[in-house]
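Subject: sequence -> structure tokens, single chain

Hey, anyone have a minute? Need the predicted structure for the following. Not urgent.
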Amino acid sequence: MRVLFLTRYAVGGPSSRYRVVQFLPYLDRAGIEYRLEPLLDDRYLTARFSGRRPGLGYLAARSLARARVLLRSRGFDVVFVQKELFPWTPPVVEWALSVARARVVLDIDDAIHLPYRGRPLLAQKVPTAIARASLVLAGNRWLAEYARAFNPSTVHFPTVVDAERFTPRGGARPAGGRVVVGWMGSPETARFLADAGPALARAQARADFVLRVVGDERFAVPGVELEAGAWTYEREADDLRGFDVGVMPLRDDEWARGKCSLKLLQYMSAGLATVSSPGGSVGDIVRDGDNGFVARTEDEWTERLLALVGDAERRARMGARAREWVLAHYNLATYGPRMVAILRAVAEGRTVAHDP
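Reply:
Had a minute. Here:
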């Protein structure tokens, strides 16, 4: 059995890393051969996060490389497409693959249909790709509901984390050390953290803590004392263990409803108490007040932050319950074998149950 993975990004892209790359060792153990072909390599993300946009020549070259791979896709039992084959193009290749009877798994973990709204030539791009796939894997229930309107062969397959890698800090924070409220993400998603700036400033005026930002070295927000640094894969787990509270602000819009709460799951796996906005998959993950807090307004953000910053025992209890929830429901060790079972079923033309 052979699988061709056509991801949006290389290993440096979180969506590709968590929706595809982290499952590859399970394919190795199952004896499944695979080929990983990202549309955009890590140079793209490096340029994008530094404020530069790769030129048309780079994008054309990468698209041509993908086209060459697709011409040889007949040698694979399953073609696994993460997000889209070619962004901002009509779904011609998706149509051609279905005509050729390729067995295609389409994986969506964002509301990728939204940018095409109101564009006559592209409005049906994502619905067509969904309808022509053999199976759709949707990262949250909102995305699954959207996909099922076009293809009943849709499975809710949440984003999960490796609980053996993201582990709690051993021992308590040293006496007298400042509480660290942490956020981890990319420069593009840091705008959501900036939205919570007023609540963070109000909380910081009443309690002693520092905001630590990992992933946007240039981040700043008025009235908030913070430390900002770069993200690296090598330091990712240790950086999380340096937090006491994890925060995940989001905006109340359709794009947020398509989010799969990766950073929230990372925090929880590391045994952190959390405060997050509602939306996306948060309703499935957080039991408000038990394994985390949900905050809808600026006042709620301020009060929940203060409740955690000022109470180490509460942080510990909530963090322990958060990790238990991840171990039970969002652990790579559970979903790795499920991914293998899904790929085998698609390769063999079998129906995939909603809970494989």
